[in-house]
Amino acid sequence: MAGPHPAPGRQADITYFTGTDFYDLAIWAASGERASDRWLREEGLWTADRDWVSEVCSLADRDNISGFDPRWRVAYTDTERQQCRTDGVTPVDLAATHAGTDEFLEEMWLAVRHVARLLYTHARLSGSQVRAVASQYLTGSR
Questions:
Q1: pLDDT-derived band of residue 11, with 50, 70 and 90 as boundaries?
Q2: What is the CA angle 28-32-35, rounded to 5?
Q3: Which of 1, 11, 14, 29 is buried deepest, with most CB atoms within 10 A?
Q4: Is 139 left (phi over 0), alpha (psi -120 to 50) or beta?
């Protein structure tokens, strides 16, 4: 699956994403929110309040979707979708984006969980460390 390169002005030691297809960029932007939701549910910690916090924390990521390409905008309601069309902007279907992100995370989930656990333990990981740990889970070798 393709996705974004590091943001302008930022450098990364690792890039799993190589394309610039807009849908892939949207999936990248939604990954944190969807990973949070999945983790809370798997751990039996999901509540409406925690879901709300995840939604609020994801607003900047959703805004980034429009920042990738100003011809696209996340639209939450029919009125907002109509306004997008009036403005000549393509509305982003958030439900479809979340479904695609969930599929992407399914492939990456063991790697995501393990990297998150190490990040929690060590507070910092380099891109090389993330690549080394994630590749163990992505290739199936441990």
A1: very low
A2: 110
A3: 29
A4: alpha
Report the run of H or E that residue 25 belongs to, with start and end: helix 22-42
Distance from C-alpha of 73 to C-alpha of 92, rounded to nearest angstrom: 6
Q: Is the pLDDT of residue 80 over 60?
A: yes
61 contacts 4 by C-beta, under 8 angstroms: no
CA 22/CA 56 separation, integer angstroms = 23
**Residues pairing with 91 in the sheet:** 73
123/21: higher pLDDT: 123
41 burial class (0-12, 13-18, 19+ CB within 10 angstroms)? exposed
Amino acid at 102: D
**Of 118 and 3, which is predicted with more confidence?**
118
Give the chain's length: 142
Check residues 99 and 7 and name the one with the higher pLDDT.
99
> Could you tell me if 29 and 61 are in contact, meaning their C-beta atoms sit under 8 angstroms apart?
yes
